[in-house]
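Tip: read the tokens left to right.
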């Protein structure tokens, strides 16, 4: 019998039209009855309230929801503390010795932290914050790598009512400065450095440059990462050492009872005008959705599972699905500091084997990189402990989906392909792994209690199969409560396109089985000779060719067509770029989708410009294709990729 792992992607795609959850998975699933959708939608406020009741409230709410479009208040009058949900109640229930975090640094340094240990450390940090004059409502900017202290700092801020704002430890001094100034942060907490692909990234120098122009900052707390990861940046008058301010504090700290609608954090996301948008999330509703989605989407068994989300806490995925969702459920997690290919391209698989990971949540871009590196790397490791796989960050193409299923999941692990945003706070569209028969590439259906519709240009609803703009049409607990200091922009950005509906900015299509397929940002939809084409569909077509490991497509101005697709392609090992292969790929897309979708040209490249979270920066590819000056690159993982790509594009001309 042929080993399924030896099959080609084309063969797998032809065989795997759908994936039915295995009987043994269904038998133990947290959700095994499809009636959950009808009951949740019939009384959606009651559904969310039933999850809120699983949290520990200091005072129960008076009203489930006040909805004054576009502003929501959930669990009005209720009081609770976020750190209590993640720590105290688990320790009080007798689970204090359960491992909260298995931490592994890129250089191989390891730590294990129990829930009791994390609680004591969080209390020390909280007491230290108070000693520095941080009070309820003060903003704390955090610029740290993926170390346990980052998660503990968030929980310490929550414990005393300070509003935290994590800035991804890869952003430029200007980006950090802009975020500090926008929120008038009182305190900055950073590490001196971190490891990435065997090199030390100097974080303290970035912070010094950023805070020089930030008068609101009274102190900068510096964590010494250790292991030779030391910045040469000079100390400033505002600097205090992590150990000096936190290490000797008392290990108990009474948590502050917060109003359900008190802000928990601000997280900045890119804006079309260039100014980042400060997304505000509050306490009770956010925690409710984080708790529910983590438990049901990942089928989490906190007493058995080892869960690993590979995101960075600097992004919303890390906030919701590393800190608050899993910890509110009492999960055991893996946290890894470094790159997936250091020192070897099997690092992730080695970690799964080492820690016996059972739930693995990563990005499609990472999966496509794994495909490019080859299935021989996961094949070297025992991945049999895996029972569920997840995908997040962008739509996953079917080819990557089936590769993920067979080479990582052994053909037995359900895949939850999740759609959500910084603004939504929690997963909105996803399979439920015990009851959903999945289809490669589809995010399937809205989470119970969520209502999502497809809207046409004129504002009318798309009924049945078809494509349109993806909108959410009823409030949900973890929705953003506005933009920090700019409610007018909040209303215009999210609620003005289709009045009364939250417009997500993404396009989607619905198939004959009522499954949703996310097509990506609408600004990644081209108008070619009057026809709207999704860049994602063209990318999926390119990746379906046996020579292509990864592809990105952008639309550029065209004198005759209005816009034309331009492709950027990474080839699989063993294939060589040539004009003949370019023509073959163009013809392949034409056959797969239609002549209008055929790329005007294709540029072969060894790498694509990506953020450290794994998203392809198509905006920069568009700048290259249109010969424009390259825009902001602060979120780019490796700026050197652009130089080679520009040179290759010009050479092609």
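Filled-in amino acids:
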């Amino acid at each position: 019998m042929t080993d399924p792992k030896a099959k080609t992607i084309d063969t797998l795609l032809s065989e795997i039209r759908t994936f039915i959850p295995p009987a043994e998975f269904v038998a133990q699933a947290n959700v095994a009855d499809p009636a959950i959708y009808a009951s949740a939608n019939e009384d959606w406020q009651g559904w969310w309230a039933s999850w809120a009741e699983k949290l520990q409230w200091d005072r129960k709410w008076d009203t489930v929801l006040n909805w004054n479009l576009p502003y929501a208040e959930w669990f009005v009058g209720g009081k609770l503390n976020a750190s209590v949900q993640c720590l105290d109640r688990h320790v009080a229930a007798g689970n204090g010795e359960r491992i909260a975090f298995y931490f592994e640094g890129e250089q191989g340094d390891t730590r294990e932290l129990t829930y009791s240990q994390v609680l004591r450390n969080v209390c020390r940090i909280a007491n230290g914050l108070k000693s520095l004059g941080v009070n309820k409502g003060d903003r704390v900017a955090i610029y740290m790598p993926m170390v346990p202290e980052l998660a503990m700092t968030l929980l310490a801020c929550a414990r005393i009512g300070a509003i935290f704002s994590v800035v991804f430890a890869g952003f430029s001094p200007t980006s950090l400065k802009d975020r500090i100034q926008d929120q008038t942060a009182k305190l900055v907490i950073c590490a001196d450095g971190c490891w990435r692909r065997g090199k030390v990234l100097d974080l303290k120098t970035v912070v010094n440059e950023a805070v020089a122009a930030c008068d609101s900052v009274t102190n900068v707390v510096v964590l010494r990462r250790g292991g030779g990861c030391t910045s040469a940046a000079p100390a400033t008058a505002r600097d205090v050492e992590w150990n000096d301010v936190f290490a000797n504090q008392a290990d108990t700290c009474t948590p502050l009872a917060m109003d359900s609608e008190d802000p928990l954090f601000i997280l900045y996301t890119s804006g079309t005008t260039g100014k980042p948008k400060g997304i505000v999330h509050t306490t009770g509703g956010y925690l409710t959705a984080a708790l529910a989605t983590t438990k049901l989407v990942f089928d989490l068994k906190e007493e058995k599972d080892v869960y690993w989300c590979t995101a960075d806490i600097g992004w919303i995925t890390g906030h919701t699905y590393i800190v608050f969702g899993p910890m509110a459920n009492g999960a055991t997690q893996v946290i890894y500091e470094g790159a997936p290919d250091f020192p070897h391209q099997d690092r992730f698989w080695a970690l799964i084997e080492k820690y016996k990971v059972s739930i693995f949540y990563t990005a499609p871009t990472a999966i496509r990189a794994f495909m490019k590196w080859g299935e021989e790397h996961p094949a070297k490791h025992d991945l049999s402990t895996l029972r569920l796989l997840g995908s997040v960050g962008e739509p996953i193409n079917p080819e990557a989906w089936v590769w993920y299923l067979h080479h990582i999941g052994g053909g037995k692990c359900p895949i939850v392909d999740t759609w959500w945003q910084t603004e939504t706070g929690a997963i909105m569209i996803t399979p439920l792994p015990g009851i959903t028969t999945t289809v490669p590439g589809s995010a399937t259906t809205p989470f119970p209690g969520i209502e999502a519709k497809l809207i046409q240009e004129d504002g009318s609803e798309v009924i049945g199969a078809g494509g349109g703009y993806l909108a959410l049409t009823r409030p949900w607990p973890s929705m953003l409560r506005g933009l920090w200091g700019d409610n007018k922009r909040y209303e215009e950005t999210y609620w003005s396109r289709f009045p009364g509906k939250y417009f997500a900015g993404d396009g989607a299509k619905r198939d004959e089985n009522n499954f949703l397929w996310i097509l990506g940002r609408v600004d990644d939809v081209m108008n070619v000779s009057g026809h709207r084409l999704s860049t994602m569909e063209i990318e999926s077509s390119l990746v379906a060719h046996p020579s292509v490991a990864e592809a990105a497509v952008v639309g550029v101005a065209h004198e005759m067509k209005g816009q034309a697709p331009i492709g950027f392609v990474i080839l699989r090992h063993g294939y060589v770029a040539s004009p003949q292969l370019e023509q073959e790929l163009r013809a392949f897309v034409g056959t797969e989708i239609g002549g209008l979708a055929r790329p005007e040209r294709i540029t072969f490249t060894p790498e694509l410009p990506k953020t450290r979270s794994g998203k392809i920066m198509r905006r920069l590819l568009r700048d290259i294709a249109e010969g424009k000056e390259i825009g902001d690159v602060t979120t780019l993982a490796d700026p050197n990729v652009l130089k080679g790509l520009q040179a290759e594009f010009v050479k092609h001309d």
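The mean pLDDT is 91. The radius of gyration is 24 Å.
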